[in-house]
Amino acid sequence: MADNPFATRGATISKRDIEESALFAPKFGADGLIVCVTNHARTNETLMVAYMNEDALALTLETGIAHYWSRSRSALWRKGDTSGQVQRVIEMRVDCDQDAIVIAVEPGGDGKACHTGRASCFYRRVELRDGQARLTLTNN
User: Fold this and answer.
1) What is the CATH number of the domain that holds 78?
2) Is position 40 within any domain?
3) What is the extent of the structural domain holding 51?
4) 63: number of CA atoms within 13 Å, CB side?
5) Are strands 34-40 and 100-107 parallel, antiparallel or unpaired?
6) Less Cβ crowding at N or C end of the chain, within 10 Å?
7) Cα(44)–Cα(26) distance, rounded to whole angstroms?
8) C-alpha 110: how far from its chain's center?
9) pLDDT 10s digits, 31-79
10) How far is Cα 95 from Cα 88, in angstroms, rounded to an integer?
């Protein structure tokens, strides 16, 4: 892997620099992770939400292919290694205080981002009925 392109460990970075400069200084949580929302580049549909650690983010930047950190397996993974649904990154954005990332991807394979075989992990709608939250399936 190439040198960490956003390494700011130990550096003092002002709030203004984080919010207004061109310095990419992602804020990883105490667990070493940053949340990543993944959207379809063409439709802007939210496909999934995952986490990245420093290695996953650096590999994503280096290769142009989405890499994530699996909290359940405690392992780095490249989306599509087993499913063929490789996600080519078209655009990456960071929020104002750099503690969340959004990527727009072109999904490969059959375009199914969810491990359940659906195009998106967000295939259920939450609705309030008779004072109870209920889930209904969407067309996804």
Assistant:
1) 3.10.20.810
2) yes
3) 15-111+118-137
4) 16
5) parallel
6) N
7) 23
8) 19
9) 999 999 999 999 999 999 999 999 999 999 999 999 999 999 999 999 9
10) 21
Q: b vs e for 45-79, b when ≥16 Cβ sit within 10 Å of the residue's Cβ? A: eebbebbbbbebbbbbbeeebbbbbeeeeeeeebb
Indicate whether 35 belongs to any domain: yes
* The total number of structural domains that make up the chain: 1
Please, what is the average pLDDT of the chain? 91
Q: What is the pLDDT of residues 71-106, one digit of tens each?
A: 999 999 999 888 888 999 999 999 999 999 999 999
At residue 88, what are phi and psi to the nearest 5 degrees?
-85, 125
Residue entry with tokens 């992990």: 121
Q: CA of 6: how far to CAs of 13, 48, 102, 118, in Å?
A: 12, 24, 16, 34
How many Å apart are CA 64 and CA 80, to the nearest integer? 13
Whether residue 10 lies inside any domain: the answer is: no
User: Could you tell me which residues are beta bridge partners of residue 52?
Assistant: 34
What does the block give as tokens for 71?
């909290």
- Distance, CA of 5 to chain centre: 18
Percentage of the residues of the chain whose pLDDT score is greater than 90 = 69
